[in-house]
Amino acid sequence: MILLRFMARLLLVPLAGAAAITAAVLTVCLVHWGEFVRIVESEPDAPDTLLLALFSVGPRAAMNLAFGVTGMLLPAAFGALIAEALALRSWMFHSANGAVASLIGWLTLQEALKPHPFTSEPTGIVGAGLAAGFVYWLVAGWSAGFWRPVFSHPDARSRTASD
Fold first, then answer.
1. Model confidence over 90-145: pLDDT tens digits?
2. Is 74 helix (H, G, I), strand (E, B) or coil?
């Protein structure tokens, strides 16, 4: 049974990481909506209407942003590893992990991300980290720790620990 939970965690944790990166990218795009629209509209092959331009050029702009956000959220992998090892299932831990990791990643990559307008302020980056951490918790963090059952009775856990 533990091996089955371990295999499920091997699939669920990367999926949660991808969902967290997507949430962080969407958060940064929403925080800097005006700049995002300006970048989409300035694309030479963008359609005339904003809605069509967002669907045609927007994904490319978001994909470029995703690489920077992934680099900034990379330190969160250590927090996720700690959460899995210690079976930490608190949404506050995962949200704080995302916020602190994005700030550390932003400070580390600040020179490389300097020309990008979306990464100029730490407030939006920390907000994106909070969103990423919360989405990670929604997908995988609430059931962290493959060795500790999620829906077991507290008395059953204490009996198995004492046996």
1. 889 989 999 999 999 888 887 776 666 666 778 888 999 999 999 998 898 778 77
2. coil
Residue 4: both structure tokens together: 């089955």
Q: How far apart are CA 85 and CA 101, in angstroms?
A: 18
Q: CA-based angle 13:19:21, to the nearest 5?
A: 105
Question: Buried b vs exposed e over 128-139: b needs ≥16 C-beta within 10 Å?
Answer: bbbbbbbbbbeb
- For residue 149, pLDDT beyond 90: no
Closest listed residue to residue 134, CA positions, set 86, 102, 87: 102
In whole angstroms, give the CA distance from residue 43 to residue 56. Answer: 10
DSSP per-residue codes, 16-68: HHHHHHHHHHHHHHHHTHHHHHHHHHH-TT--SSHHHHHHHTHHHHHHHHHHH
CA distances for 32 relative to 2, 10, 68, 94, angstroms: 44, 34, 15, 24
DSSP 163: -
CB 21 within 8 A of CB 69: yes
